[in-house]
Specification:
730 residues; alpha+beta; nine-stranded mixed sheet; 23 helices; 13% strand; binds adenosine-5'-diphosphate; binds magnesium ion
Length: 730
Amino acid sequence: MSIRQEVLFKIKSVDLEKVKNPKKVSSYFGENTFSLETMQGYISKATFEAFKKWMSEGKTITLAQANEIASAMKAWAISKGATYYTHWFQPLTGLTAEKHDSFISIVGPGKVIEKFSGNKLIQGEPDASSFPSGGIRATFEARGYTAWDPSSPAFIIESKLGKTLCIPTIFISYHGEALDKKLPLLRSDEALNKAACGLLKLFGHKDVKKVYSTCGPEQEYFLIDKNYYDLRQDLIMSGRTLVGAPSPKGQQLEDQYFGTIKERVLNFMFEVGEEAYKLGIPIMTRHNEVAPHQYEFAPIFEESNLAADHNQLLMELLKKVALRHNLVCLLHEKPFAGVNGSGKHLNWSLSDNKGNNLLNPGQTPEDNLQFLTVLAAVLRAVYLHSDLLRASVALAGNEHRLGANEAPPAIISVYLGNQLTEILNMIEKGAKSKVSKRNIIDLGLGRLPKFNKDMTDRNRTSPFAFTGVKFEFRALGASQNISTPIAVVNTIIAESLDYVTERIRRESTGKDFNSAVIKVLSGLFRETKDIRFEGNNYSDEWEKEAKRRGLPNIASTYESLAALTTKENIGLFEKYKVFSKEELIARYHIWIHMYNLTLEIEANTLSEMVNASVVPAGYEFEKLLARTLHGLMTLKKTAGLDIDDAVLKDKKAHLAEVSAKIYYVRRNTGELVKLLEKAKNLNDHKRAELYFKELKPLMEHIRKHVDALERVVSDDAWDLPKYREMLFLK
Ligand code: ADP
Ligand code: MG
C-alpha cells in the first residue's frame, strides 16, 4: 500500500466538532479591538478630542497625549490577558510582519512591571534588516522604523497559550521612504481626498470635509485535508500543485457553485466568522465557489485602509483556523490545474464624510451630472493607466489566471452595462450648446434609475466592471495584499478627477455650468470610448478587437511590472506624492526578484518530486511489467506455455510505453536543471524573461509527461495524493 492510500483510510475518521451554541454577533463584535469607543473609556476627554482631530484634520497629538493613549492601550490589552505587543505591518513581500516585545520592564533586582510608553507606541525599531528594500536602504543603515497608524485600531490576536496586542503600523526607512505597502495606500487616499473635494466644490458642495475610498474585497480560497497536504511537497513549498492528472470529475457539472456547504467546511466557516467578528472584521457572505472545494468570504465594505488590514487579517485567520479543523487553506491563485483558480474582486468606490457614495446616482439632475462626471473620471483613469492596473496585479501566481478564461484577461477594459452605455452614448452625441435644467431632464438625466446589480452585473468576464454603486476590479490574485492595487486605483483616479475638474472649470467660466459639464462629459466619453467593452472578455474576437484599439495585453509579470519604471508613471506618482521614483524602482526590483525566487522554488521542487517520487513510482511499475513479461516468456520457453505472440507483443508495448514516459520525464527534468544553471548568470530582468519564456513551458511539458505516467502507474506505487482525492473532501 502507498503512503497515500494509508492516508486515505485515516481521513475517513475525521471527527466533526460538536456544535456550539453560537453567541449573538452584536454581543462580541470587535471585542478584541481597541476601538474609538473603547479608547474613550480609558483616556481623558481632552486627549480623546485631540485624537479625533488628528484623525479628521491631521493635527497631530502631543507626546504627553501619546503617552496617555499608550498607557490606555496597555491597560486595556493587559485586562484582556495580553502579555506581548507587536508593531504589525505589511512588508513589500506581501505577508504581514511582526516583532514581538514583552510589556515587562525591570524595576529592581528580580522585579518587573508592565510598561508601555508613548514613544514605543508611536515608533518601534525592529531589527528588520532582512526585509527586502529594493536598494532603498544600504546595509550600513539597514534599519527600518515602524510608525503607528492610528487610523486602524489596535487589536489582540489570541493563541492557545497567550494573547498579543498588535499595533497597525507603517514601515519606513530612516529617510522616510515607504518600505511597506500601507504607507502608499494612505498617501493615495490623501491624494484622492484632495482631488475629489476639488471636484465637489466645483459642483457646489462647499461643506464636504473629506472624501475617501471604500473597499470590499471578495476573498476566494481552497480547502483541502491536511493529510493530503502533508504528502504534497509542491503544495508545501509553492502553494500549488506542480503535477497531478485532472480528476475525471472537476467543475464541469457546476454542482459546487453556491451548493450546500459540507458540514466540516461549515464548522470551519463558523469559526472563521467568530474570530473575524471579534477582530471587528465585518464578513458578510460565505459560499461555495465554482471549483470543487473552492469557497469565498466577502466583507461589508469599509474605508480602504481598514479593508486592507482586515483582508490581511482574514487571510491569516483562514489559514490558522483551517489547521484547527485538520484542513489547509490554499490562497494561491492557481493551486490546481484544470479547475478555476482563486481571485479577489476588489469592490471600490468613494465616499464623502457624510457617507454619500459618489458613484451612486442622485435624486436631482445636478447630482446625476456629478455622478456622471465621477464616472467619466474613472473611465479616463482606466483608459490612460491600464498599464498600472495590470502592474498592480502582476505576480507569479496570478500569471496562471489572467487571460486563462476563468479570470479577466490581461487586457484591462471597463464594463458599464446597457443602460449606462446608452446614456453615455446619448451625451456623447447629443451635447447641446446650452443645457438648462429642463434640458437635462429632456436628456434623460433628471432622474437616473438606480443601477442595481441585476442591471449591471451580467458580465462576469470584465476586469473593471461597474456594479451598481461601485466598480469591481476583478484581476487581483487571491493571495495578494490589496494595498497596492488600491493605491494605484486611488492615484490614477485622483489624477483624473483633477483633470476633469480643471477642464470643467475652464469650460464653465462665464458660461452656464450644466451646459459646460455636459460638453466636457461628451468629449470625455468620446475620447475614452476604447476602454469600454460590453461583450465577452474571454473571446478571441475581443483579443483582436483590443489589439485594433491599441489596448495593452501583457501576459508576463516582468513586462507588466515595467510600467512602474516609465517616466510618465514615475511622474504621476511623484506628483501625487504616493511613490517617489526610488520607491517605485525599489518595488519593481523586489517584485521581479520575488517572481524569480518563486519560479526557482517551483522548479527545484518539481525536480525533486520527479526524482524522489514520480520516477521511483514509475520504476516500481516498470519492474512489475518487466517481471510479468519475463515470467511469461520464460514459461513459454521452459514449460511450453501456450501464449499468443500478440499477447506478448502487447506486454512488451506496455512496458515500452511506460519506459518511454519515464525517459521523457527524466530527460526534461535534466533540461530543467540545466536551465536553472544557465539563469544564474543573468540579471533579474533577463532571468524573469527566461523563466517566463522557457522555464514555465518546460515545467508544463514535464508535468504533461508526469500526469500521463500517473494515469498508467499502479495505484499502489503512487504516493502523491491525486486530484480526485484532494478535490473531493470527505
Ligand atoms: P457580488 O455579486 O460581487 O458578490 P455584492 O453586492 O455581494 O456583489 O458585493 C460585493 C462586495 O462589494 C461586498 O464586499 C460589498 O461590501 C462591496 N461593496 C458594496 N458597496 C460598496 C462600496 N460603496 N464601496 C466598496 N465596496 C462596496
Ligand atoms: Mg463574487
